[in-house]
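User: Predict DNA sulfur modification protein DndB's structure from this.
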Amino acid sequence: MSDPFEYVFPCIRGMQAKSEYFVSMCPLRLIPKIFLFNEEELVPELRAQRFLNKARLPDMSRYLLENKDSYVFSAITASIDGEVKFEPIEASDNGKRIGFLHIPMSAQFIINDGQHRRAAIEMAIREEPALADESIAVVFFMDKGLKRCQQMFADLNRYAIRPSKSLGVLYDHRDEMAEIARTVAFKAEAFNGVVEMEKSTLSPRASRLFTLSSIYNANSALLSNIESGGFDDKVTMAIEFWDEASKHIREWRLVKNRKITSGDVRRDFIHSHAVVLQAIGYVGNTLLKNGLKNWKAKIKTISTIDWARSNTKQWEGRAMIGGKVSKAHHNVTLTANAIKKHIGLQLTPEEQRVEDAFHRGDYEG
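Assistant:
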């Protein structure tokens, strides 16, 4: 006996790998109701998805709520465990591809891709019920068992590569600090023409000296908790600081003037690497936040720092671990500490704690 109760989805029918699939627009209010799961009760080998990482949900939900006029969520992909019937619209001139998908309410829906989107949608609707009237694309496949569902999850994520941090900064127009990073990279004399805008790592032969992601982190350090009049003031402050600092780092100027290559600089010196750039940002933050009128005179003294990689007595354990540059948080702090002490700035209690741990041998990598 057939199930007298059913879901009916307007959809488009397609074919992949000789199997039918269906694409529909589903109201957000239905997403939490029909896509149920109990992954907490199943071991990984009996699940068709990864375990739900609840720590990701508040940020995803907040993204929906804070960008109600511009958010973008990609389609949810699910398998249907049950007998379905596709009813084409006879009058349509489309090869019977458009119609209605009838799914019995006794059927189960298994999410192959999108369980975090589903949970974030549920969380956001609780706070903003009006979102329930919006829709999301859903791709339905027919369930062919757990093995097939697990393979679908693996295939859907096989070539999913997270974009580089630099590319994320380049394209992010919601994050003010990303906007500042882009503006400073283009307008600051220190950085213009020598910033890699897409990649977050530089090869030995790369023509650029810095990455956009390192500019982002350095400006975040520089402008942290500094009171300003707004975006333009922050940009002006950052440009002024980096242009002044660049005057006192000889190799940066030589690369700009094409006297030496960026590859040579990155090979032989540490001052263009992300850990040092961020450390210089923290030093600048101390100078600007404390309102030191002679901050330019202070920053000038970085010209006497030996930035060479071969200066292991100074940088091993701070900016480098085993001769390799490290950008771990404590390495940034230890590098900033060395710069601060060189130019005559006092360490904060937290910086002193990290410094003491370093001298005790707690931070040897």
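Residues 40-47 have pLDDT under 50 and may be disordered.
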